[in-house]
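Internal ticket #5521
Category: modeling
Description: The requester needs a full-assembly model to guide mutagenesis choices. All entity lines are attached below as received. Residue total reported by intake: 481.
Assigned to: D.W.
Attached entities:
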Amino acid sequence: MNCEKYQDLLSDLIDGLLTPRDCEELEAHLSACPECTEAHGDLSAIVDYCHEHRGEYEAVPNEKAMWLRITNVIEAELGNRKAAAVPAGAGWWFRLTNRSWQLSFPQFASAIAATMVIAVVLTIGGMRLVGRAGAGATTAGLSLSTDVSSVQDRYRQQQQIIDYWNKRVELNKARWNPDMRDTFERNLNVIDAAVNDSMDRLQKDPHDEVSEDILNAALNDKIALLKEFAEL
Amino acid sequence: MIFSPPAHIVRRLTPAVLVVILLTAATYAQKSVSRHYPAGKNVRLELKNLSGTITVETWNRDEIKITALMDAPSVQFNPRMTDAGLVIDIVGDNRGRNDVGDVNFKVQLPARSSVDLETRRGQINVSNIQGDLVRAHVWTSGDIQLYGINASRVFASNSSGDIFYDGEFASGGTYEFKSGKGTITLQIPVDCGFRLVATAPAQRISMGKFWSPNMKTVGEGRRVIGDVGDGRASVTVTNYNGNINFVRR
């Protein structure tokens, strides 16, 4: 519980309406929190004063009229403050961001629906653009891009991730049992062989689509394997 | 010359030797744990093992039976029932330990179940699952054998080891098979319709009776792309260093 919640309970504490458990918890908090202790003191003083002077003040002749007057004064003051807060030369962005928004439920729901529609339209548009720019689709995890520089960039990025996880694995490897270590090494070699074969082919033919896909898939497999075993 | 110890020494040593033998046997004895869990017709089983064989079979009861045969008796084995089904995580339950050894699982569950199985090392066998999902993943070495499968999503992958699939390709379903080194064999009914992307850069792709005029090879036969029948299921097969075979069921 935070101070706000504790302060909500102060009135009940003074009136003796709290359960013993809540009472104990609140008192423990009061002993440690000067702010809440001060709030408790103020509220106790007000309640004590009211108790002491009960019957000494006259009832308000027209309660409703008085509350209306109070509400009018508060609203007028708030309006003045808002007007003063917006400088004369403020732009539309300042006015928009400093405006207080009060929406009904249908307005709120419509705003969310509109935001979702815009997000979906932008996502679909973006995906189409990316698809065109990359000159290929993704087929079940195998990217069919044919741009040579993007292949090299991706390889460099994947290699950096591999280096990171490799270090993590090396830290832990000594703790593994020898069988697991042996199995891991053997299977890492299988993936490395696929990486090397693809690299060799791409050296000869940089536009070899199959090798490019296998290289990408094998590097991703290597990352996944290292990541999995880094946690062992 | 034959040495024969005096009888009184033999008499004194025999109990000690017996105690040593019994202690050794107890140390190396496997522990077997069997548990039953209530299950609906389409429950989901999630099993993450470190090492060992996982065998999943179906039966006509609305319950799951797990039998775990453990090399190390001290292995932590804490299955949890969740809203979705049963979760067994040997990896998580034994994190930081290197004395876990093999845990061999035999699981019996209703045929309409989904199974998501994973092991760092070891074989995975699944038979007769008719649910939504069959996923079998071996992080390193281990064969995967899937028999009599009729699920709309099947994923089978290992780093090294054979993958054998015997089952249907349902219309609209997704099927992915991937191995680093081993043979991938897919045994399917002749009337199956699917869109295929099969890639085997180092070995051979054999389509058998499933070769159709709607297919083409790419990169000197290292990839086969195209439709078989109505092409409504999506099938992706990748083998870095091994054959891919399609066989009639």
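Resolution: model delivered.
Comment from assignee: Chain B has one domain: 7-248.
Ticket closed.
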